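Protein modeling request. Please complete all fields; requests missing the sequence field cannot be processed.
Requester role: graduate student
Desired output: 3D structure, token encoding
Chains: 1
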Amino acid sequence: MSVVVTRPVLAGLLGPTAETLGPRLPGLALIDNLGQAARFFSGNHPGRGLGERDPAQRNTQEGTRPPRPTLIVDEASATDNAETLASLAITSAAVAVLGRWPAGQTWQVDPSGRAHHLDGSGSAGPRMCVLTQVTATDLLTVIAHPDPAPPEPGASGPSRNPALAGRSPQWEVTAQDYPVRSGTDARRLQLRVLGEPTLLLDGHPVEIRRSAALQVLVFLAAHPDGADTRQLTDAIWPGLPRRSLTGRLYTTLSDLRVTIRSTAGVALIEHSDDRYRLDPTGVTVDLWHFHDAVRNATTAVATDAAIWKAVIDAYPGDLAARRTWPWLDPIREATRRHVIDAHATLASASPDARQALAWLQAGIRIDPYNADLHSQAVSALITLGDHDAADQLREDYTRRLAAAGILPTNTALTTATPTGQPAIRTR
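Delivered output (427 residues):
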């Protein structure tokens, strides 16, 4: 059955999400007042569900009349428009008034959902399902129609990123899976996940109230093909019974959507086929820019210092720095590996030994436990004739491993020579 409700009533029921959520709910029509309701029903066949076919086209076999829509108003609106409401109740709709209404039966519903008739008899009525505002909003968000993505200039159809078209969902992603970004991209929303995770609107941080919501943004940034409900709940709340987490995920996503829509006026997260994705047409993501740079560097025919420097420049810090989310480590390490390779490549291609050493030292600052970088740095120092510095680097590295409880399993550092570049790693 379709529902017609005044905006003040919906705002009282759903709170600040009413204006953005209401227009997207199937079978729901929003009106400003009862005067508008009269015009609305006069233009619709009585009993026709909103958005449905003419009743004559339905129920032809049984000859039954379709249910009338329900009109919901508050007590003040009903009192000011008593005659209009009475007329609508007779001709067009089933009417529900929130508050006392002498022209009809009045029921009081307690927090447990039990209804009692307020006619003095105290007779009990049916028990109703009672939801909190947050729960109701979350469930309605799930069934709401998604917001259409704004079309790109000159586009004749819905705007879709060609980099995401035609691909089957993947759990593990590579550099090629990240949407390609052009240098002229100037979207208002920016998501930074390298370093401190931050969502920016026109350069200003957007407050994300729930830590789980921030984790969802980072997770979807790292998985541009999206993730389904099971993958998200397993990653964000590992070890907890999945049956108890679906509602928590819906609450998190609902709050995140409301925050972004009220701040930026867009729907950042797409939901289709039970998969959640960041809308690549509405946000720029630094991780996607980074993997675009990696793709350019690794597919180049010849070594070009500029394209490898672009990889380093696109990496301001570890993925979700200082966060200890269980799912992070493999993706964080793979991302760090790309930038380490960039430093090592620039060092090996540099004709200047001091410049090569500088690239290696910069890489060591990113990964202070990397044996390969330390071995090459020791060799570079020996090449430069600075044996004391080479010995000091060996000792510092050994102490760092011991402090972390790591036992070296090779003699790479003790056998490094000016011409030997061992490629043994402890990580």
